[in-house]
Write a structure and sequence with these properties.
178 residues; Rossmann fold; five-stranded parallel beta sheet; glycosyltransferase
Length: 178
């Protein structure tokens, strides 16, 4: 399957999580064995091509795709977690949301200094969470220059924000106007 074949496997849910939002749901892609395998292969091919040493996934759906890619490539997987989920002292970063702030955490021993880390998540919207994850992984010693996504919502500008921060950004598909 190609990336074009995967696009129809994404379910659109209107007015979620609030009125006016058209939510792009990857659970239908994950639930399609051949589609999930193809998405994982396509992401893994790109991570391999850029010489990834470590795959990092952003909670929560980034864990699904990132862990599958890491397993396929036989690379370590580093979860970028929400607060209070790791049982060790953590590195943490606070970042701005549309209304308020949130925090991400990572195990500081999960990445060796200078390892090339590829960040994977299911969707790039405004880019705030992804930028915070990149900064956190860099603080942990990783070299982060690549971010991979299943879906890009280009009208929200997140991929462009990451590119402006010096990252190469790729997505398997995009949905304009959402």
């Amino acid at each position: 399957m190609t990336a074009d074949d995967l696009k129809p496997l994404i379910r659109a849910i209107p007015d979620f999580p609030k009125p006016g939002i058209l939510f792009r749901d990857v659970t239908t892609l994950i639930g399609h064995g051949a589609g999930f395998a193809a998405a994982t292969r396509l992401l893994a091919d790109r991570a391999r091509a850029v010489g990834a040493d470590v795959i990092a996934g952003i909670e929560a759906r980034g864990f699904i795709f990132g862990a599958a890619v890491a397993a396929r490539l036989e690379l370590p997987f580093v979860p970028v977690r929400k607060p209070g989920k790791l049982p060790v002292p953590v590195l943490a970063i606070d970042y701005a949301l549309e209304y308020g702030t949130d925090t991400l955490e990572v195990d500081p021993d999960a990445i060796a200094e200078g390892q090339k880390v590829v960040v994977i998540d299911d969707l790039i919207a405004t880019g705030g969470t992804a930028l915070a994850a990149v900064e956190l992984l860099r603080r942990a010693g990783g070299v982060v220059t690549e971010a991979l996504f299943v879906i890009d919502l280009p009208d929200l500008g997140g991929a462009d924000r990451l590119r402006a921060a010096g990252l190469t950004v790729e997505a398997l598909m995009d949905f304009e106007g959402d």
